Amino acid sequence: ETGVTQTPRHLVMGMTNKKSLKCEQHLGHNAMYWYKQSAKKPLELMFVYSLEERVENNSVPSRFSPECPNSSHLFLHLHTLQPEDSALYLCASSQRVTGELFFGEGSRLTVL
Amino acid sequence: DAKTTQPNSMESNEEEPVHLPCNHSTISGTDYIHWYRQLPSQGPEYVIHGLTSNVNNRMASLAIAEDRKSSTLILHRATLRDAAVYYCILRDGGGSNYKLTFGKGTLLTVNP
């Protein structure tokens, strides 16, 4: 049990679909993150939320839309994705924005 | 973020110590040295971090050079479960930089 739960673990979607990834942390942290991990590439930071306010958008295309309704939940809304968006999407949380990150197990996304 | 340099891969035998090196010659005075690892099909996992002094925890030890331009993660007795990609990362402890940037890391193979 990592304390950070991501659902679904696997998702297959077409380019015209709309889907969402969900992340929930049970650690009482106040910062949450989305990372993308493509095959054979380093993890890429996508978004950072601190106290439910977005503090970082790392030049991510608008077809990815994050939402942080409270400090325990983080969503990544997906629409009109491209096949190159297929990757492992990892959620993480930390006690503060400079603290150690605790990661979930990721959502494996395949875009057809 | 200040950059780190790690070997692409290392190999070890089970129950032997492993020393994973990291060079960070451009480290600044407020940068903490963090280590994470990523087991196959899982999200990254925090291992250890330090600033100037050597650090020990239940997972590993971190040896930091006196000039702080390099560090070594030490696994005292490698097990098959330690086979993973190990990331050495610098994190600004000053509070303004919340980006945790991952490089390619070192792929550790543990032989039975």
Describe, in plain words, how this protein is organized in 3D:
The complex is a heterodimer of chains A (112) and B (112). Chain A is an all-beta fold. Chain A contains no helices and eleven strands. Chain A has strands spanning 4-7, 10-13, 18-25, 31-37, 44-50, 53-57, 64-70, 73-79, 87-94, 102-103, 107-111. In chain A, the strands form two sheets. In chain A, strands 2, 4, 5, 6, 9, 10 and 11 form a seven-stranded mixed beta sheet that branches. A four-stranded antiparallel beta sheet of chain A has the order 1-3-8-7, with no helix packed on it. Chain B has no helices and nine strands. Chain B has strands at 9-13, 18-23, 31-38, 45-50, 55-56, 61-64, 70-75, 84-92, 106-111. The A-B interface holds A 2, 4, 31, 33, 35, 42-43, 45, 48, 50, 55-56, 58, 90, 92, 97-98, 100-106 and B 34, 36, 41-46, 49, 91-93, 95, 97-105.
In a few lines, what is going on in this structure?
The complex is a heterodimer of chains A (about 110) and B (about 110). Chain A is mainly beta and about 110 residues long.
Low-confidence segments of chain A, ≥5 residues, pLDDT <50? Answer: none
The tally of beta strands of chain B, per DSSP, is 9
The largest pleated sheet of chain A is described as:
7 strands, mixed
SSE run of chain B = EEEEEEEEE
Count of helices of chain A? 0
Largest interface: A-B, 24 and 22 residues
- Quaternary organisation: heterodimer
How confident is the prediction overall: mean pLDDT of chain B?
91
Question: How many distinct beta strands of chain A?
Answer: 11
Main β-sheet description of chain B? 5 strands, mixed
Task: Record the strand order, biggest sheet of chain B.
Answer: 1-9-8-3-4
Distance between the termini of chain A: 31 Å
